[in-house]
Amino acid sequence: MASEMMEALMALCQEKHIDELYLIDRLEQSLAKSYAEILHLDFGARVTIDRATGRVYVYKLVPEGDINDETGEFDNFEEVDVTPKDASRIAAQHAKSEIAEIVRNSARQQIFEEFSQRVGDIITGTVLQTTPDFAFIKIREGVEAELPYFDQRRYPDERNERPAGERYIHNQRIRAIIVDVRDPNSNQPPIRGERQRPSIVVSRTHPDLIRRLFELEVPEVYEGVVEVRSVAREAGVRSKVAVSSLDDRLDPVGACVGPKGSRVRTVVSELRGERVDVVLWSDDPSRCVANALSPARVSRVIVDPENNYATVIVPDDQLSLAIGKEGQNARLAADPSLAVDAAPVSDFAARLTGMHIDIKNESLAADILRDMPKEVELAGEDGEYRCEYVGANGVQCRNMARPGSRYCGVHEKLASMPADSVSDDPDSLI
């Protein structure tokens, strides 16, 4: 029986990739505690397992000498052989539960070592089980992940990685991003139910999920020609993605959108209908802010680089579009957590641009426009610029400038005329 037990242990070690010496050492320690209780040994026992035959030897520890004054314990022990006749049979019975625990810990450790290097990677899995608080996702055979969606009001210390409105059913295939892998040997206090929950934590709300999805669907992003510079997301509702290109001949927005929108539609489909806006990134802060508020048309952006602050001026009919429904368009360009309570709904610190943004319409910003130098560069769309003509009331012309000119066809000649020869009537063309 002893030799059969050793053969079984060696086969198990090979199958589960467990170190043989580690397994036998754990068994010896566990058996020593058990035999100390069975044989009523006051000073404990030492157990050795013959690596060749599998025979078990039990030794009684008998103290020698005097007690150490510093530790209050004996330092030296004599070992007396007290091996029972049925030691191997008892060891075989005891080893079952001990080996099961070792195998579980070893599997968790192997998963941690593998997936701790993959935090931020996207995975495709199958929903195994759903509960009111989390879902189990099967990544592959023997490897599961947890997608938590705890109620933050009841469990503020837990996670909520599920977009609003999403529900999962058995055998449903989903994509998610790895955000955490729990260390089984960590000294940190375990979270609620951690022993029964997988150590891999995945998310469907993390902004990097969109970044990884574009890498899968857009070859230019995967190859690094097109770079996703920034992502702002309200999971399940709407997202904004700012992209740039290393090749001036390549349109990064068009590459991400794809022919007839095929590429971005694939991303939207994976996100369950979440709206995704792809905008052009610019190293020019004013143009970057203007693009971030797309689809609203921006008249002018005044940037204060020292305070990381930008004042955005939009036409009167574009104000509601720039703010968006319930401030959504502005929030995606801004983080409401940094907004002041007394600030307007459009006053946010930008997620997409990293700037504090204040949106004003042209009527309310007439004084600002009147005091601004005429040579300030205007933000436009598709490489075009607004006509720089500003009337006496401080309102800027809404027409686009002619190619190679700073003014539209109406005001190109008026700009060169003396100021006293131009009517103060804003509706007048002379």
SSE order and pairing:
Blueprint: H1 2-16, H2 20-38, E1 45-49, E2 56-67, E3 74-81, H3 87-115, E4 122-130, E5 134-140, E6 143-148, E7 173-181, E8 200-203, H4 208-217, H5 219-223, E9 226-234, E10 238-245, H6 252-257, H7 262-270, E11 275-280, H8 285-292, E12 300-304, E13 309-314, H9 319-323, H10 328-332, E14 348-349, E15 356-361, H11 366-371
Parallel strand pairs: 6-8, 10-11, 13-15
Antiparallel strand pairs: 1-2, 2-3, 4-5, 4-7, 5-6, 7-8, 9-10, 12-13, 14-15
Helix pairs in contact: 2-3, 4-7
Describe it.
- There is one protein chain.
- This protein is an alpha+beta fold and 430 residues long.
- It folds into 4 domains: 2-108, N Utilization Substance Protein A, Chain:P, domain 4 (2-Layer Sandwich); 119-183 and 196-203, Nucleic acid-binding proteins (OB fold (Dihydrolipoamide Acetyltransferase, E2P)); 211-280, K homology (KH) domain (GMP Synthetase, Chain A, domain 3, 2-Layer Sandwich); 295-421, 2-Layer Sandwich (GMP Synthetase, Chain A, domain 3), CATH 3.30.300.
- Helices cover 27% and strands 24% of the residues.
- The protein is built from 11 helices and 15 strands.
- It has helices at 2-16, 20-38, 87-115, 208-217, 219-223, 252-257, 262-270, 285-292, 319-323, 328-332, 366-371, and strands spanning 45-49, 56-67, 74-81, 122-130, 134-140, 143-148, 173-181, 200-203, 226-234, 238-245, 275-280, 300-304, 309-314, 348-349, 356-361.
- The strands form 4 sheets. It has a 5-stranded mixed β-barrel with strand order 4-5-6-8-7. A 4-stranded mixed β-sheet has the order 12-13-15-14.
- A hairpin with a 6-residue loop joins β14 and β15 (356-361).
- The longest helix is centred in the first third of the chain and has 29 residues, at 87-115.
